[in-house]
Automatic annotation (TrEMBL):
Keywords: Signal. The lineage of its organism: Bacteria, Pseudomonadati, Pseudomonadota, Gammaproteobacteria, Alteromonadales. This is Porin domain-containing protein. It comes from the Bacteria. Residues 22-374 form the Porin domain. Pfam families: Porin_4. It comes from Pseudoalteromonas fuliginea. InterPro entries: Gram_neg_porin_domain (IPR033900). Residues 1-25 form the signal peptide.
Amino acid sequence: MMRKSFKYSVITSFLLMQSGFTASANTQIDELAAALDKVKISGYLNLTAGTAKKENAFFRAYDTKINATSETWGGVQIDFKASEKLDFTLLTKFFAESRPYDDSFGVDLAYLSYKLSDQTKLRGGILRVPLYKDSDYKDTGFAHLWLRTPELIYANNKVQRHTGIEILHDIYLGDGTVQVQAFYGQNEDPRAKAAANNNKTYTIDDIMGVHATYSIDEHLFKLGATTRTEPGDLSDFTYTDSQGNERLEEEGYYAGDRQTFYSLGYGFDDGLWKVDAEAIFEITTGGRQDNGKYYASVGYRFGDITPYVMYQYRETLDDSERGLNVDTYVADDEKNTVTRFNLQKSFQQSILSIGSRYDISSNLAFKAQVDSYEHTSTGVNGNTRDIDNLLYSVSLQAVF
């Protein structure tokens, strides 16, 4: 009887131990699941191939041969929710082919986000400049209807991102929401470093601006202003030519100039029709040309297939300010003077794009697009120059 009692006691103790072990394991699993739930890993991939009708006519990455690397890139994003109020975001980016002034792999975004209230958020770190309507996701490709973003409008690498702070505040207005976004920061300028004759790091100072986005039903409206200063000064870009004369690199003519970007944007998406339009005006104090840049696109969804058309246009706005004077730089022991006038008095550029998007699945899309490019420039002597080209592209774009 004693033996049976002992046996039952041992069995009971073992079962209790197993129950305790199972409960402990379940607790650890729950804790691990809760920790993993705070981390979200996502990413995107663009595989693009294209060929141009002519060589070296705007589409510089393409010639008459098929190129499958110039617009192939991807990235991985990690989001960590540290608490109910604090988040961290890291977005990496890699290029299949190294680009000028870009590493083949690097950090695209990295910032902390702190929720001050239900309507106000503060961010700090490496951030996107909210100049464009779709700045928050413009590099993912898949998020856009088109194969590539409108180049004549979005192609200003000096105001794509900054290291600094920004504040976002939501204002509820009727059935819609207005989000006000103000920011301040700086960004290195590798183009200035490449032009200068030293190893200094050149910084685009005081990049700052205020933008407001109003969303209501299927509509989105955005307006704002961004401003920044060209880096360096005259002495950073001077050099001595073979005849012993002191000269100035082209970047030196713009050193210290202030550039302001005024932007307007509109978007509409009701599930069938998708309409996008933007206008950006670049106004500069100094010799750089003032530009007006515009685009509009329309697409209509036939199930998983969405054909679209987009038209872009860019023009100079201050043609009357450019005369016969060309680059003038006078070096003096006490004072340097510089005047910048372009031989080109005015130019107009346009791109007409026709394409189609096929959504293979919820996270994979195939796109085909044809771009027709035209460029007309007029010199200060009245001579005109016309350039045109065609680009044929296909792309497989995915998010995960």
